[in-house]
Amino acid sequence: MAHEDDPLELERASWKPSPGLAVAVTDPVRNPELPPHRERMTDKDPVAMKRAVRTVYTLFYLSIAGSIWAVAAYMLFPIESGRMIDIRQNNLFIGLGIALALLAIGIAAIHWSKAIMSDKEFVEPRHATRGRDTTRAAAIQAFSDANEESGFGRRTMIRNSMIAALVASVAPAIVLFRGLAPENTPEHPHGGDPVYLLSHTMWKEGTRLAHDPSGEPIRAADVTLGSAVHVIPEDLADLSHSDGYLEEKAKAIVLLMRLLPEQLTESPERADWSYDGIVAYSKVCTHVGCPVALYEQQTHHLLCPCHQSQFDVTDAAKVIFGPAARPLPQLPITVDDEGYLIARSDFTEPVGPSFWERH
């Protein structure tokens, strides 16, 4: 009841809607239901359905052909030859084969779902999920219905070609692993032995140290205190890409640094491996082979940017931090009669990452 002394309550009690004013209806909104189902051409025409089925399994077979071509291209254009044309064609044709294989699978799957699988709309009521026998039976029935609607069990050509295409699509990736393990050949009798390959580089007694990439020899007098110089063997410039330039450079790259001689801690057997405070270490990290090229002048530490391994240049490049398992191999150096820095020998241990076969 409105209080007779309350103007607001009196106004509310006396209010009536004007004749032209619409009043909101509080009835619940009616469910509009699903729109009428529109049949596709493949639902109405058996010929169109057969044509769609042929299209799908033809695409799956095209995918198989692409996978086979990628494997064949790997063999027809071997990157081991070192020829730039083979490397380019290898990348081009393998890429085209893999792209065709995956693209055909994708297009076939989309066309299958749009033209062949059942597309009737339905409403699934929500209910509490319980692990009862009836729930399990309903799940099994749902899988059975999905199999029936998709035609996976009935349309053997589509099913078998799809499985074959999926299996074939991984073949190029498996075959590409072959390039990680070169085999022995008459020209390269130790091509499959990583210990031998990583134990022998282009460094030998008398080889001059040269700037990377110019190949200009380095005088000891030109190496300033606190500097770090990227170094390659002088003979490397004589190699072409077809002769293994990149492979030899990857093993022989060196970082040269100059410290005060009294800052170096050298064992008796390595006392003559440096020259007037100049030391040379392999740039290839002993963890996974990244280039160790960050030198900190104040602490004399070398840092690998990939996984943050740190090496102490003053103490035989020993590992002081990070996942690397052993010090960087040291290149023994001295100078020749003209004052150029030269190697005393090759590295005395395999360069690169630690691996179980190395001695």
Could you characterize what this model shows?
This protein has 359 residues and is α+β, with helices and mostly antiparallel strands. The protein folds into 2 domains: 41-120 and 134-180; 194-343, Rieske Iron-sulfur Protein (3-layer Sandwich), CATH 2.102.10.10. The protein is built from 9 helices and 10 strands. It has a 4-stranded antiparallel sheet. The chain has a 4-stranded antiparallel sheet with strand order 5-6-7-8, with no helix packed on it. A two-stranded antiparallel ribbon has the order 9-10. A hairpin with a 5-residue loop joins strand 7 (310-312) and strand 8 (318-321). It comes from Microbacterium insulae. It is found in: Cell membrane.
